[in-house]
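tool_call predict_complex ligand=pteroic acid
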Amino acid sequence: MEAITRTVLDCGGKLLDLSSPQVMGILNITPDSFSDGGDCFFPEAAIARARTMVEEGAAIIDVGGESSRPGAVDVGVAEELRRVIPVIEALARELPVPISLDSTKPEVMRAAAHAGAGLINDILALQRHGALSAVAQTSLPVCLVHMQGNPQTMQVHPRYDDVVEDIHRFFAARILACEAAGISRERLIIDPGFGFGKSVVDNLRLLKALGRFCDLGLPVLVGLSRKSFLGKLANRAVSERLVSGLTAAVLAVLNGARIIRTHDVAETVEALQVVEYVQCQG
Ligand code: PT1
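tool_result ok
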């Protein structure tokens, strides 16, 4: 595994230190997200939840206005802007940690950057028309997520020749596309996209082979918490997937992940602290 030479990301002036694994707390401003839909639909509730996650040790807050769970439906640009921009503005001003925008829409990316967002998280890996140039015009880091298909249909027939190598090749190509568009490698984070057009076995293979992605020399982010592949392994409903989620997060960090995107911030921070205590022994 190639060492990551750069361990601090500049997120629009707020620094994200990746010399130890960090937790990204999920803040869904949606009426329909898969595990917490509606909890934070009103700005006051969203801001309170973000404060709590930072107290619990989150190093980034990921704000999303459109659900991307399997079967989720599209939200228009105007509605997405209305949901996320006021919350990003308030959080960027108030909180010491960078605020990330979870969106695929260039218009929303641009507005979020102006509102003080410190990172762009895109499940379409900037493949939407105009997304590369929207991000290039900011100086923000960006997380490129792999998805096969789209949220409406991605779980119907996921197909790979070799899930790990196919996705590795996808990232190599997206990294080149970013560099050609003026987004330097130093700004990139990669995420194999657990649950985004993957069978249970595909997800397990990716988790086991996460180290393969680290050799691209970029920080690896993973989102595992409460996802259905974990539920299928242990026959657990969405609200019962904490133990599997923490186990998967620990495995991901042992296999090289640097950022864990999760609903369960306090528990994940505690689990990763144990991993760190063990890892830093001589
Ligand atoms: C993720 C992620 C994300 N996941 C990043 N952003 C979601 N960077 C939203 C299921 O199978 O992993 N990385 N933004 C949520 N997506 C899903 C996908 C939620 C699948 C649930 C499932 O249950």
